[in-house]
Amino acid sequence: xxxxxxxxxxxxxxxxxxxxxxxxxxxxxxxxxxxxxxxxxxxxxxxxxxxxxxxxxxxxxxxxxxxxxxxxxxxxxxxxxxxxxxxxxxxxxxxxxxxxxxxxxxxxxxxxxxxxxxxxxxxxxxxxxxxxxxxxxxxxxxxxxxxxxxxxxxxxxxxxxxxxxxxxxxxxxxxxxxxxxxxxxxxxxxxxxxxxxxxxxxxxxxxxxxxxxxxxxxxxxxxxxxxxxxxxxxxxxxxxxxxxxxxxxxxxxxxxxxxxxxxxxxxxxxxxxxxxxxxxxxxxxxxxxxxxxxxxxxxxxxxxxxxxxxxxxxxxxxxxxxxxxxxxxxxxxxxxxxxxxxxxxxxxxxxxxxxxxxxxxxxxxxxxxxxxxxxxxxxxxxxxxxxxxxxxxxxxxxxxxxxxxxxxxxxxxxxxxxxxxxxxxxxxxxxxxxxxxxxxxxxxxxxxxxxxxxxxxxxxxxxxxxxxxxxxxxxxxxxxxxxxxxxxxxxxxxxxxxxxxxxxxxxxxxxxxxxxxxxxxxxxxxxxxxxxxxxxxxxxxxxxxxxxxxxxxxxxxxxxxxxxxxxxxxxxxxxxxxxxxxxxxxxxxxxxxxxxxxxxxxxx
Length: 604
Description:
This protein is of the alpha+beta class. The protein is built from 18 helices and 18 strands.
């Protein structure tokens, strides 16, 4: 059986052989990117380099990146969807040798030294062309020369990558599929079908165009790139002929562990299977987030809210299969043992991860108690309405979607639990109304998170660069005041303001805030050059640079130095001189989550 460890080994063996430099994966918590809460794809941390900033390791790189993606959270529990996964990736930066990348893809997939798939069992798709850009004849011809018989042309919906809104860097992609051997669902059966005959295993994105305005024809991008992505778990499942991602590797180990202690068995019925899988996926996501060096804990906002949702959803599923949540600690151990060898930060935070899981289990137990009380109030309200109903008025035994959503949103009471308790009392729940309110809630949350941005690429304006530099000065001021145990716990930068999270055990007084503000403005007034140097991670550590040193030493990084005040490992962009910042002003200090404070500031 092909293991994920061996696939990673093959990946790096192949691409380093072809001149790509192996780099370590990035944090799962994005740095200075207001567009997303988590690293959602392998390309995400590389956005500055895709936009033109030179990468310290050169223009051909490859890695394995841990990702969190929540857009398909409601699909988790089926055979293939995960919120937490690892992505194999390789990049050409500032170049787009399409034929070379396609030939590399073909070689890795079909060579006996690597995956050894038969070319007869492969199908590929390419862009059909439209008013934005022409048909991708180069990709089509190259696949045909490689010997791929089934090459399909599809429109933008299937074979085009672009930012949200369709404006900015973009380009055609070419997707690779394994033909499972299942019969065709129709004469027109193709990789665009969801019948299961074709399963995607890889994607090459040719980022070679730029759209300046919506509806306009794409222009050639001055510095094109190639970005590829192969989902590790899905590929392992496909190559091992497994029925689902949960039947391979560590995910299977966790499923087997749960089976020992749950009263309902795995695959006993459709619902139980789904609950097993949600627990398996969501606890892994929680371990990856809690174990990240940048640090996030459960809360009611942002990343902490998503983390809380993962844990509480897993708790709720455990209830349905009669699994004691005390075993979540053992599941966390299984994941730390597995991934700690790749991600040191997870290994070093084992106790912290287990403690936070235990805290959230306790908090949710209390929330459920409150939810039960509110549920009874809803039932009593309906019963009272029945008692005093006017003659001829019919009062249904039905809980409104509005009430069900209030239980969910205000008290964290899962909809599935509301529905189950209602059925026990002879009631139904207006699920359609609940889902409508839930969708409204999701849209408001999405707008609050994304704001004016088109998800994907971070803003790189001068003002954002200046505010980015201001966060370095801010951290330096906080560490001077409170000691070097104070670390950055997240940041969010727009052209208008910065938001900076850090660990501190108390609310800052006005005097403390004034002191920090004055520290930053003193540094601005001194007109200090901001110097960027490229060095190995070990050299950066030995130089005293602030940063995350969880990765193996040897990877080249950028270190930004601001006189004697600040020295940090960081990606760009930054100001050239502190004087560019003009004046720094703190506009708010508040709690972000337990033990984490947040400062919002502007430059005026």
